[in-house]
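[job 4471] stage=fold_predict status=RUNNING
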Amino acid sequence: MEVRSTSTLTLPSFTMSLNSVVNNLVRAAAGIPADISDGDLDRHVAELLAKEAKERDAKWSEIGLGGLLGNDRSQ
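[job 4471] inference complete, writing structure tokens
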């Protein structure tokens, strides 16, 4: 039995399409205007992720695994 693909998308074009969809969803969720470049948006998201990682690292250092998981036992 031979299986034929009816899709005309190649992997690079699929990846670019997926990237555009994700960028549009991020823009919509954060209220970011469409005139902000994808590169600027990617940098902004990277900064947010780095900030969150730094905050979690500090919380981990302070109260251990419970802090990382959000089970704040210090209260």
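[job 4471] summary: The mean pLDDT is 76.
[job 4471] exit 0
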